[in-house]
């Protein structure tokens, strides 16, 4: 842009094209321009075709246009030059009887018109300057409008302009998609038709505060609901309000899932804590009941003690369920016959899936696997629940078992497996869904937690196995679980604890550590009855002190894990360093992941979960000592 | 004189910036009275030209060159019944007359332009005859005014 500095102000040198076939008019206009103190550079042509040609090569700021030329006349002259001079301000020069035509050109985009014979140099120059400035303003406005329109049309958020009554006057496509209405139907509709019941009062609050933000549910035309974060700006123009709607349904769902998950976690912790304390109490009751049983002087006393012990067993069963709910149960993989597990679950599966679904169970036993029975049951139940949800109108749920050998090149690492297949004849899944089903919190169900299949996946992986899924929309789904084969069913003979008397006597020295005084005292009394010599401590620190001061051999350390002051882990580390020959038996009502968090690797031989019977305790101790 | 061609700046068509000849209008107004008529307003023309005698002289020269050809074009178009040409050349003459505040010529030219517009040339020859006379009067008045203004400088 060329600028001239004149009398302290900057002016743009305006490039003017004069299109005029009357030499007198042309000369007069030219003279006016030359004589002006304004800065003009003018070019003159007498024909429209010449004007169109030069406009292709040069960008003019202003076009002075006579409508009646040798090669064009009237409105046609204007309409032909308008697209070629779209960036220039057009000033029409007209005869006195052409004013209606001139006014029409102004409506269509000319900046102004001047009637020949009625303007002098000052009016011409002022009109040119004003026309140019108006054009500049219009261009700036047009650019601004184009920018705003592009943002409006391409925004991922729904944008709605409403009147005072929340009626939509304008809406972008994102708003129409969010609300689930065609755009033409959304315009003229009221926002109240889609918002929840509180929206109307929210609206009044918005209008009072001029701007605000709120979250609410929107009911879509198809019956579904979306949760929106709404930003509101009142009176962006008189009686015009801006409403921006952001769909945060997924975020809301995730937050809700997280809240639910945190709630379950909290309940689990509470349940686990209660179970722990309750187990300790049960342990005390159980201990004294056993002592009563041992010391009974007549049959009636013994029977009473046995009844107390039976009641304790039921109570212990309840606490175990609480621990399971809190996912704090001890993981105890053992050799399992999958056939027995699945067969035993058959009744529960049938009840769970309902009468409309036919359940087929395996008929023959296959190999053994090393797994946690509770977890394996959870796998079967989760997949059965999944199959039920995929067959709302009934169908067939098939659970199959077979021995499977995987070769190199298979998607399953080579080896021998027990293959557990659970298939349904339900709605099936598309490939995209199949690729995500094991992700935590992914769910295609309205009320699903999204944790069922991810739990299955975790359990299978934890058990050293593999899981695959095959599915097709409308043709059902099939989950294959490959668990490493440990032994064949024929060679395995499960050793069931018999009724044979347990050998529990001994004279070795045992260091017993438990912060529950009553339980510790009862245990000491029982073990002393068996012949052992007892050292007792209330916590880890006290136990370390006793162990360090004791000169003799300590054969067994029996200790709780979660204790005040020095905990079980610290005590174990110390004993393993100072008395590596001492065998350790961990007892805990909190066993579970709290134990695992303390970094202690457990085998069933070295762990006893509270509450336990003294008989079992005595048996464990003897096994440890005799090993 | 032919019209300037494409991309030729108008400035170049009229070489040399003339020396401005600024006249005290109050002194001159009395002299316009002799030229004023119902069809010509010399005071309005003088005001529009901002008292520029040189510009007046140039415009009168152009008019003197152009109007015979324009009149001839109008006459031929009337005789041959060429409505568009009658309209076009009459419009052009009207525009020039308006710039000179020559309402008589402008009105007659406008009448012929309308006849061409409506494709009805009855009476056009008579109007044209009046137009010729009025153009001659205007040209004479303009020459007188230009000479007087020139002399006044």
Keywords:
heterodimer, A: 627 residues, alpha/beta, Rossmann fold, Beta-Lactamase, 5 domains, five-stranded antiparallel sheet, 19 helices, 24 strands, disordered N terminus, B: 153 residues, mainly alpha, Four Helix Bundle (Hemerythrin (Met), subunit A)
CATH superfamily (homologous) name of chain B: HPT domain
Beta-strand content of chain B: under 5%
User: How many strand segments of chain B?
Assistant: 0
Report the helical percentage of chain A: 40-55%
User: Beta-sheet strand percentage of chain A?
Assistant: 15-25%
User: Could you say which overall geometry of chain A the principal axes of the C-alpha atoms support?
Assistant: elongated
Helical segment tally of chain B? 7
Overall radius of gyration of chain A: 44 Å
Domain count of chain B: 1
Question: Kindly state the mean pLDDT of chain A as a whole number?
Answer: 83
The pair of chains with the biggest contact is: A-B, 34 and 36 residues
Assembly category: heterodimer
Notes on the protein architecture:
The complex is a heterodimer of chains A (627) and B (153). Chain A is of the alpha/beta class and 627 residues long. Chain A has 5 domains: 149 residues, Rossmann fold, CATH 3.40.50; 93 residues, 2-Layer Sandwich (Beta-Lactamase), CATH 3.30.450; 63 residues; 151 residues, 2-Layer Sandwich (Heat Shock Protein 90); 118 residues, Response regulator (Rossmann fold). Chain A has 19 helices and 24 strands. In chain A, strand 23, helix 18 and strand 24 form a beta-alpha-beta unit. Chain A is elongated and about 140 Å long. Chain B is mainly alpha-helical and 153 residues long. Chain B has one domain: HPT domain (Four Helix Bundle (Hemerythrin (Met), subunit A), Up-down Bundle). Helix content of chain B is 71%, strand content 0%. Chain B contains 7 helices and no strands. The N terminus of chain B is likely disordered. At the A-B interface, helix 1, strand 4 and helix 2 of A face helix 1, helix 4 and helix 5 of B.
